[in-house]
Amino acid sequence: MILLTRLNGPVFALNPDLVERADSTPDTVITLVDGTKYVVGESLAELVALIRRYRASVVAEAQQMVAQPHEPRREPVPHDGDGDGENSADSANVVQFHRRER
């Protein structure tokens, strides 16, 4: 999310992935993919810089997550096979899903 300022002062957060278009007329008007329009105090150049910075931070964080060692995956609890969906060794609320035959 990026933080933007409405013309009358309040700050709000906007998901930049929903921005379809931004115009400078002379105020900056942001049009979202659903047609919603916002008029903001930031210039068009500032808006573009904020969106670039946001997207760069998302990519950097994703790369950092890949570089970090992963926690070991937990093994699934074995099914007891009696069809009631419960495991006699562990009474946790685990629902066993079975594939439907097509």
TrEMBL record:
Annotated coiled-coil segments of the chain:
none
Q: Where is this region: Disordered?
A: 62-102
**Alphabetical list of InterPro entries matching this protein:** SwrD-like (IPR009384)
Which residue intervals are annotated with compositional bias (Basic and acidic residues) in the record? 70-82
> What protein name is recorded for this chain?
Flagellar protein FlbD
Give the organism, scientific name: Planosporangium flavigriseum
